[in-house]
Amino acid sequence: MDLKTILPSIGYLGIFAVIFAESGLLIGFFLPGDSLLFTAGFLASQHIFDIHILAFICFIAAVIGDSVGYAFGHKVGRRLFHKKDSLLFHKDNLEKANTFYKKHGRKTIIIARFMPVVRTFAPIVAGIGEMEYKTFLSYNVIGGALWALGLTYAGYYLGKSIPDVDKYLLPIILLIVFLSVAPTAIHILKDPQNRKQLLSLLTRKSS
User: Where is the signal peptide (predicted)?
Assistant: First the structure.
């Protein structure tokens, strides 16, 4: 997607909606949160957005989105483990978030912000696990600030400090996406069973 073209057309409200959806709605797991935040920050450096309004909107969307995800998980989340896969829901994603949550505990709410897919399901899993909402909210605010404010201001200051940085925007975004996906990939590949299944799949495709 050409975010440099899309973001000015959807404006603050559209950016809010995307960050909100990716942070806590099941349909949002495929949305480009990391690259969107960075690109929006870069566009603010080009005077297309006001950086402070933009950062505030992204932060609020991230926090509210996670809170909605928590509420959803608290009310109906347990039923999801018995739900069949569909176009917009894959139980594997929920299981991965659940496993990650069990391993890392409450700090998952912060760590997951930088992990695509996991960040969408982590607040739902927290709600299912009946974490006290006060505790969840404190981690939610910290994670939302580090992710939404950090990436947005990073794009802004990079755009301000490097001449013609837009020429390198695509490689930078690809690097951000890679760094976002890498922790999840490493976590999955640490499991010998997952490595075996992946190797089996690659062997089948090559034969």
Answer: none
Dist CA 58 CA 152 (whole Å): 8
How far apart (Å, rounded) are the C-alpha atoms in residues 133 and 111? 18
The residue ranking higher by pLDDT, 182 or 21, is 21
- Contact in structure between 65 and 25 (CB atoms under 8 Å): yes
Q: At what angle do helices 51-80 and 118-128 cross, to 10 degrees?
A: 50
Domain extent listing, the chain: 3-206
For residues 138 and 36, is the Cβ–Cβ distance under 8 A? no
Measured CA to CA in angstroms, residue 56 lies from 51, 81, 136, 192 at distances of 8, 35, 20, 42
